[in-house]
Specification:
This protein has 395 residues and is an alpha+beta fold. It contains 10 helices and 22 strands.
């Protein structure tokens, strides 16, 4: 009995002292042979990452989690059907119970081949308090079952254990839809202005991991002396933004705005939106943002749900004004409200509420700007999402 008690105490001490990946209510303590990826790698992948190089294993915990629209049994059944439809006989689906420290947690597991021939993927999914959590393990192709080193890692998984403190952690970036149909609609005013006196021959809005580039070009017929001459024109520029992977109450953001020689009076403005609402409404608002509908976040920011903390007004970050034919760079301070404490975060989850912060990055054409593409530029905005993260996420 003393030996069993000693073993349990040793495991509990190991879990308490080890570093941990934390995604909302999920905590995965880890130690050697597992190694944490860099914040830059995790920001690019939108997931928390661990590697066990000697075993050839790579583990990813996607962020954020998914709010269920049905009960757990329905979710598992639909996920099983989805895997069967996607992978057919290549999908080996089973159940796994793991997490001995805080009681058993049931995982639905799908083993399937990856696009790389020498890799097998184990996709694990579980439900806790109305949210679906996923873990992806990439293993050598010969692995028919979860390797022991991965089973040992999952055995220490904990749910519902709040971290000692929280901070804001960047989880993803949302780019509003910029399909061909959307872009065509954005230049209709320019086409109408030109009429028979010219033509728009090209336009584009290109979002990337580092920012956005835009251009619009065409020609106009102009009478010079006694001759009518076709004059080509083009306007455009590029904005690069470097946000921090984690945000203290105040953090520096680096902005670089480059304008073409005949582009002028364009500024960059940043704004912080603190959203706290029922989880499903927050998820819907983020979906609408990706489709280019911005009104919902404004509504949620104004109509805070009962149980959400009130926050003080935040100082607006300094705007960056572009200069024709030049690249202008600045570091501006972006202040977020204090992240919710562990107790506040637990209370929000219990009430079915989600709280996140969005940093909106938007280009604005000014009144002195001439030419074409104003609506195209106004569409050049995107959002960096910050969510409460645990002390286990900090480095």
């Amino acid at each position: 009995m003393r030996a069993v008690l000693f073993a349990l105490l040793w495991v509990a001490a190991f879990v308490a002292d080890a570093a941990a990946l934390r995604v909302e209510a999920l905590a995965i303590p880890y130690a050697s042979p597992w190694q944490r990826a860099t914040p830059q790698q995790e920001a690019e992948d939108g997931a928390l990452l661990l590697d066990a190089p000697e075993a050839g294993l790579h583990l990813a915990v996607p962020r954020p989690t998914r709010v269920l629209k049905a009960d757990a049994a329905t979710y598992y059944a639909r996920l099983n059907e989805k895997w069967q439809a996607l992978y057919g006989s290549r999908a080996k689906i089973s159940w796994l119970e793991s997490g001995a420290v805080q009681g058993q947690q049931k995982w639905l597991v799908c083993r399937r081949p990856a696009s790389e021939r020498d890799v097998s993927v184990f996709h694990l999914s579980t439900v806790f308090e109305g949210r679906a959590y996923s873990v992806l393990l990439f293993a050598p192709a010969a692995a028919e079952a979860l390797p022991q080193v991965a089973l040992d890692l999952l055995a220490a998984v904990q749910f519902g254990v709040a971290p000692a403190s929280t901070n804001w952690v960047k989880t993803r970036t949302l780019y509003p839809q910029a399909s061909a149909e959307v872009l065509e609609a954005l230049v209709q005013d320019d086409i109408a202005r030109l009429g028979d006196d010219g033509m728009v021959t090209g336009y584009g809005l290109d979002f990337s991991a580092s920012g956005v580039a835009w251009f619009i070009e065409g020609y106009q017929w102009k009478r010079i002396d006694t001759r009518v001459t076709r004059l080509a024109w083009n306007q455009g520029g590029q904005l690069e933004v470097q946000p921090p992977a984690e945000s203290a109450p105040s953090a520096n953001w680096r902005l670089l705005l480059t304008l073409a020689k005949n582009e002028a009076d364009i500024s960059v403005q940043l704004r912080v939106w603190d959203l706290c609402a029922p989880s499903q409404r927050v998820a819907e608002a983020l979906d609408q943002l990706q489709r280019g509908a911005f009104a919902q976040i404004q509504r949620l920011a104004l109509e805070r749900a009962t149980g959400c903390p009130e926050i003080e007004a935040l100082a607006a970050p300094a705007a960056l004004q572009g200069e024709s034919g030049k690249a202008v760079q600045v570091e501006t301070v972006v202040s977020l409200p204090p992240a919710p404490s562990a107790a506040q975060l637990a209370a929000l989850r219990l009430a079915g509420l989600t709280r996140i912060d969005l940093v909106e990055i938007a280009l604005h054409p000014g009144p002195r700007r001439t030419g074409f593409g104003d609506r195209l530029i106004e569409r050049a905005r995107w959002y960096v999402v910050f969510e409460p993260g645990g002390a286990g996420d900090a480095r």
